[in-house]
Amino acid sequence: MSFQPNTSQNKEYKIRLEKSFTDQKPGTSGLRKSTRQFQQTHYLESFIESIFRTLPGVKGGILVLGGDGRFGNRKAIDVILRMAAAHGVSKVITTVDGILSTPAASNLIRSRNAIGAIILSASHNSGGVNGDFGVKVNGPNGGPASESLTDEIYSCTKNLDEYKILESQNIRIDSIGKYFISSMTVEVIDGVEDYIHLLQNIFDFDQIRSLLNNNFPIAFDALNAVTGPYAKRLFEDLLGASKGTVRNGKPLEDFGGCHPDPNLTYAKELADLLLLGEAYAFGAACDGDGDRNMILGKGCFVNPSDSLAVLAANAECVPAYSNGLLGVARSMPTSSAVDVVAKDLGINCYETPTGWKFFGNLLDSGQITLCGEESFGTGSNHVREKDGLWAVLYWLQVLANKQCSVEKLMLAHWSKYGRHYYSRHDYEAISIEKANGLYTRLESLLPSLVGESFAGRLISHADNFAYTDPVDNSITSNQGLRILLNDGSRVILRLSGTGTKGATLRVYLESYVSSKGNLNQHPQEALSDLIDNIDYVAEISKRTGMKVPTVIT
Ligand code: VG1
Ligand code: CO
Predict the structure, then answer these.
(1) Is it the case that residue 170 has pLDDT exceeding 90?
(2) How far apart are CA 123 and CA 371, in angstroms?
(3) Are β-strands 184-189 and 91-95 bridged in parallel, bridged antiparallel, or unpaired?
(4) Residues with CB under 5 A from ligand 2 (ion)
(5) Which residues have a Cβ under 8 Å from the Cβ of 429 and sit 6 or more positions away?
(6) 185 and which of 60, 91, 110, 452 could share a cystine (Cβ 3.0–4.6 Å)?
(7) Nearest alpha carbon, ligand 1 atom 17
(8) Is 2 part of a structural domain of the chain?
(9) Counts of helices then strands in the chain (DSSP H, E)
């Protein structure tokens, strides 16, 4: 380990801001804007200053810092290190070249007693000069900052007139070592090691290895984003998968022009390999910052809501969860597939607003062990973020244990619990005005819809979802318009909080068929009457001018 003390005391500057920024309100998952917006003079600094003024314990505290390697990552790390030193942070833990996945960052916060982390990522959004950049703030439990903290950070940005930073110097983070900036230590670690160690304590690696050695070829697509180095170490070095199992495994600043979102549209190359080809028994992909996962079997796509249900139903296969689950939680738009499993297991199932921060209190207080979202996010109490590679290993462990294919496991699951046909339709980049118009109109209609017929059923309930946190009683409202039908079907409309171009409307559709019903329909067919009806009631195509959604999952 190299040791490079810097004896010179770096000069501290106070930079005055001509104007404060008014557009730094964090969304579902941190501050996310186009790279060009972030390139405005003082833009990043304004948000970072507000974090350092707001996050508890900054002076003398330990901070975790890294990102998904997208364009701007390295430069932002440089700025944040100098600002952290100016704010009296005692130590920053970062990784070689600043490559750090979101779940690995969450783990480091927890294992190194840090006050939190700054994670540089716009997650599944595209990267590069023409793409997006983002800053996520996590707290001492390892999870995304609470709503109240991000509200405070936001109000700080609006009134900021200056920020503190040390003079520029060459800060090396290209190899493991310890450096100093003034009196602050910068510890550069191998970002992969701690995380792999964590997973080794959860799963039975030997069992997964024997599955992979036994005629069970897998393909993993890192989409040129952060999970490449982690996945290579895991699958190719430790679990015996053949070289080349990890595709697009080198993190690139623009993700090679891809959209690092693991779904059927943006991870089409992998999806085609599994859904059309014969070569692989299992496929998976993760997103830009490594917290999402897509699971595929031969000829079989696993819907993320179903994935959560399957993981919950098979917890006994995984050493860390073999004593049973404390409870489970899902975000409101996620299908109720996991609710049915929870009922069967006799455990609680919580319904939270969209975004991982809402699971934190439930995990911290021991109410739940597993949680997930329909947007390809699944996780457990091992960290406080969703965790893509963890989910992939969980699936492999279950398959190794059950000695069956993904398709067979899904069929067995539906034959026991019934099937929740589910789909999400995204309408991207619609004008904010049109999106708001559509949304507020539907919201105002909701009370009058109750009792009306909808797709041959009756609307039993319609509201704008509000959540009371069972642990701290905080209330979060305006979380999505829900239309609940009398047979348990649901249609939900939300406006995205992570998009950067115009507005994104998400329409979530769910319909339940019992284990005795038709379990083999195509989801778009099974849901077609709901799709037609919501288009009519909410005037989606009429108001957006879009005949079909941008992305169908
Ligand atoms: C989306 C997903 C949500 C997820 C969020 C952050 O938010 O729907 O489930 O928690 O992204 O994921 P929205 O507001 O666009 O629907 V990530 O991988 O960006 O941390
Ligand atoms: Co992500």
Answers:
(1) no
(2) 19
(3) parallel
(4) 123, 287, 289, 291-292
(5) 499, 501, 502, 503, 504, 550
(6) 91
(7) 123
(8) no
(9) 18, 28
Give the position, in ligand 1's atom list, of the atom nearest the Cα of 375.
9
* Inter-helix orientation angle 73-86/43-54, to 10°: 40
Distance CA 336, CA 527 (A): 15
Residue 260 Cα to ligand 1 middle (Å)? 13
Confidence of residue 1 (pLDDT cuts 50, 70, 90): very low
Burial of 306 (0-12, 13-18, 19+ CB in 10 A): buried
Three-class SS of residue 412?
A: helix
SS3 (DSSP) at 307: helix
Domain, as residue range, for 155? 7-190
Mean of the pLDDT values across residues 445-456?
A: 94
Among 325, 307, 319, smallest CA distance to 397 is for 319
Instruction: Please check whether residue 505 is in contact with residue 426, taking contact to mean a CB–CB distance below 8 angstroms.
Output: yes
Residues 6+ apart with CB under 8 A from 90: 60, 61, 62, 183, 184, 185
Q: Which two tokens stand for residue 130?
A: 């023409």
Note whether 177 and 277 are same-domain residues: no
Looking at the structure, tell me whether residues 13 and 133 fall in a common domain. yes
Which whole-number Å values give the CA distances from 169 to 11, 172, 269, in the listed order? 10, 9, 43
Cα–Cα nearest to 51, from 65, 69, 34: 65
Q: Do 201 and 121 reside in the same domain of the chain? A: no
Closest ligand 1 atom to 354 CA? 9
Rg for the chain, CA atoms, rounded: 23
Establish if 1 belongs to a structural domain.
no
CATH of the domain at 468: 3.30.310.50
What's the confidence (pLDDT) of residue 164?
96
Whether the CB-CB separation of 373 and 411 falls below 8 Å is answered with no
Domain boundary among 396, 417, 438: 417
The domain spanning residue 106 has which CATH number?
3.40.120.10
Q: Which amino acid is at 108?
A: L
Tell me how far the alpha carbon of residue 160 lies from the centroid of ligand 1, in angstroms.
28
Q: Is 373 a pocket residue for ligand 1 (Cβ < 6 Å)?
A: yes
How many domains does the chain fold into?
Answer: 3
Residue 178 has pLDDT above 50, yes or no: yes
Q: How many whole angstroms separate alpha carbon 178 and alpha carbon 224?
A: 28
At which residue do the structure tokens 């399957």 appear? 310
Of 190, 205, 239, the residue that ends a domain is 190
- The answer on 352 and 267 residing in a single domain is yes
DSSP 57-111: T-TT-EEEEEE---TTHHHHHHHHHHHHHHTT-SEEEEEGGGB--HHHHHHHHHH
| 206 and 339, same domain (yes or no) | yes
Q: What share of the chain is helix, strand, coil (3-state, %, to 5)?
A: 35, 25, 40
Q: Does residue 124 have its Cβ closer than 6 Å to ligand 1? A: yes
pLDDT at 9: 64
